[in-house]
Amino acid sequence: MYWIDPEHPDASDHITRYLSGWLHQYCPQNRPVIFVCIGTPAVIGDCLGPVTGTILSKYLQTNIYGTLEEPVHAVNIKAAIKKIKKQHQKPFIIAIDAALGNSSHTGYILLKEGPLHPGRGVGKRLPPIGHIQISGIFQDIFSAAAADQMTCFSRCISQGILKLYSAL
How far is CA 57 from CA 12, 20, 34, 64, 133, in A? Predict the structure, then answer.
C-alpha cells in the first residue's frame, strides 16, 4: 500500500514506478490491462474516475471503461463487469475511484493491491473490482475543495499512467 501526495513534484513518477512493479510482478505480457474508472459526473468529488478515464482515453489505445461520456457508476457497474469479462480473456484490472477518508488521509492518493470496493464509504454494497486500486481520498465529495482535489488527483494519476505506457 502506498500513499502519495499528488502535489509532490515526483508524485506521478511514484505512481508509474509502483504500477510498473505490480504489472511486471503479476501481469504476463499476453494479459490485457483494463482501466475501470468509477464514479459519476453528477458529483464533483465523485467524478475522479470518469475525468481520469477521459484523459487516458485521449492518449491510450488500451481498454478504458468509465469516462465522462460513458461513466461506470453504481447503477451500471454490474453490467460493466459482465461486459469486461465477456470481451477480455483474464483481464488485469486497475480500478480508479474517489474514496472518503479521515482528515489524516484526505488529499492523498492511495495505491493498493487487491480489489476496490466502490461505494463502501457511502454505505453501498457493490461488487468489488480490480487487481490494483487507485483512490483519491476526499473528506467530503460535495465540498468546494473537492473540485480542486479532484483536478489535482486526476492530473497526477493520469500522468503516472501515461508515463507508465510511454516507458513500456
Answer: 18, 19, 12, 6, 18
What pairs with residue 109 in β-bridges?
Answer: 4, 136
d(C-alpha 2, C-alpha 15), whole Å: 9
Looking at the whole model, is its pTM more than 0.85? yes
Burial of 163 (0-12, 13-18, 19+ CB in 10 A): middle
For helices 11-26 and 145-167, the axis angle rounded to 10 degrees is: 50
Q: What angle do CA 95, 40, 104 make, to 5 degrees?
A: 65
Rounded Cα distance, 16 and 14, in Å: 5
**105-129 as b/e: b if 16+ CB within 10 A:** bebbbbbbeeebbbbebeeeebeeb
Using one digit for the tens of pLDDT, what is the confidence trace for 73-126? Answer: 999 999 999 999 999 999 999 999 999 988 889 999 999 999 999 887 777 889
Query: What Cα–Cα distance (Å) separates residue 115 from each residue in 104, 129, 159?
Result: 23, 5, 22
Query: The C-alpha cell of 9 is what?
Result: 513534484
Strand-by-strand arrangement of the 63-65 sheet: 2-4, 109-113, 132-138, 92-100, 33-37, 63-65
